[in-house]
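Figure S7 source data.
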Amino acid sequence: MTGPATVGQTRLSWNLPGDLHQLVAYHFMVNAFEVGTVTAVVAGAIGWFMVLRRQSFAGHTLAVVAFPGAAGAIWLGLNAAVGYFGFAAGAALVFAALPRSPSGKGFSEESAVIGTVQAMALAAGFLFVSLYRGFLDSLTGLLFGSFLGVTDGQVLLVALVGLASLAALGLMARPLFFATVDEDVARARGVPVRLLSTVFLLVLGLAAAEVSQVTGSLLVFALLVMPAAAAQQVTARPGWSFTLTVLLSLVVTWLGLAAAYFSIYPVGFFVTTFGFATYLLAVGSRGLLARRGRQVRGPLVVAG
Amino acid sequence: MTHSRQPDPVVAFAGAAVRLGNRTIWSDVDLEVPAGEFVAVLGPNGVGKSTLIKAALGVVSLSAGQVRVLGEPPGGASRRIGYLPQRRSFEPGLRVRGLDVVRLGLDGDRWGIPLPLLARRSARGREKETRLAEVLDLVDASRYAGRPIGELSGGEQQRLLIAQALVRRPELLLLDEPLDSLDLPNQGAVAALISRICREEDVTVLLVAHDVNPILPYLDRVVYVAQGGVLAGPPAEVITSQTLSRLYDTPIEVLETSEGRLVVVGQPDAAATHAGHHHR
Ligand SMILES: Nc1ncnc2c1ncn2[C@@H]1O[C@H](COP(=O)(O)OP(=O)(O)OP(=O)(O)O)[C@@H](O)[C@H]1O
Ligand SMILES: [Mg+2]
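Tokens for the predicted adenosine-5'-triphosphate complex:
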């Protein structure tokens, strides 16, 4: 890893082409941008549904569960990404198997179970890190994100898992939206609600594991929740808010990576800060729009 | 529309029973609903009216007997049925337009990604938009269909959901308390609308209600769910002081107005809570 030594010497020159050139001068940085880009798209798309389905807590827990997976993989000398994906996917399947409340609504009753799993996962991850006796760096990296040392193998794995998740999401997008907004009618219409919920949790687990690799396990909200929550504040049109979510997620990730590259502070901090700023902006602009909207009511447009 | 009038009943229960948990909700139900009829399902709270609708949809399975809907086993004809579940309200924070919820009734069960911009270019896409606008007009919901559904009042949401049930021109409407959370004039208006759709488009309607008065003028048949079984008959036979008082276990009077309309007094709804406690 030649990263850390050289990164400290990079300087923002405020000359855009020069800075962009610097950004991709190192192979590890190209890898980081590749992983970041795939992750941003996956996180935006899946986060949009997660926010709509009120499953943010489950999403966060899946990311936290990925942490002992990654720590364990490093301890065993495996690729960290394998541990991230394996643990998050396994936990997703366990959540899907949890009995649902008779009313069938969400995770309100299961939140205690999910919280318990989250605490245990953090504890186990901490143990693995201690067993590894590695640098304390690896602990902060796993929890709060690091873009250093992304290997080519990791890029490939993230890309493949990301594409598979997006393909699955694309296939089930409309019935999943139906089952999310209006579960009873969807079920009566023959939409396999239970199956969709399981597949979605699985895809959510994979997405959470991807985001963990950029922002760290504790800061996945930055990409899974913030862009979607911001976009849904701005517009209630599903097509537009979905597109906006993915765009915001991309911008936040790229800016976060660049800012981390030119500074000595961690990437998770920057991605989260930019995500948070976007959310605040969205809430603020919605407040303004609502006030304007009360004065001039536009005609109804029947369009998506 | 080319529905040939089916000689077979649209909904047919034969010796049907449902168990939930380890309680039998109802059993030995034999019920036939002929095509094109407007049928009310009445009964006290908790007797299994919603369960009857869900059994017809195939969402709840029978523990005995069988049910056929539109000539198919339950669940088989789901695309030809419009369903309105009981008392749904959307979370206040749900940032999805009413319009989008109605649109799901049209194509929500299709796999893939909705691409509204592309879809509007095709003839079928435009046809869908026309139908959507038409059905919103029908329930008088165009004014607020563009607002996030979580922000709408219970009655406004209910109208949008009725539109959602109607949008695909179903052959059978299963409506679980559609008049719930509507004000009195709107109860009358929606009841009239449903009966018009039933007559003009030859749609069979099975409608659960607690207050029978708004729908009484339009009914072809009444189904009473009570005491673990089902009783069906024409309104003139079932809507009598005697039968109602017996079924709800409380005095209920049926009066005739000067124009010959029947009116049920004695609050079956209040009585229903009372009866419900009795059976438990
Ligand atoms: N999943 C379930 N498990 C066990 N019992 C259930 C379940 N769902 C419903 N029940 C019971 O079945 C009975 C019938 O319920 P149902 O919803 O069909 O009543 P209803 O006639 O529609 O009542 P209401 O007028 O209040 O809508 C109730 O006593 C209810 O407690
Ligand atoms: Mg009911």
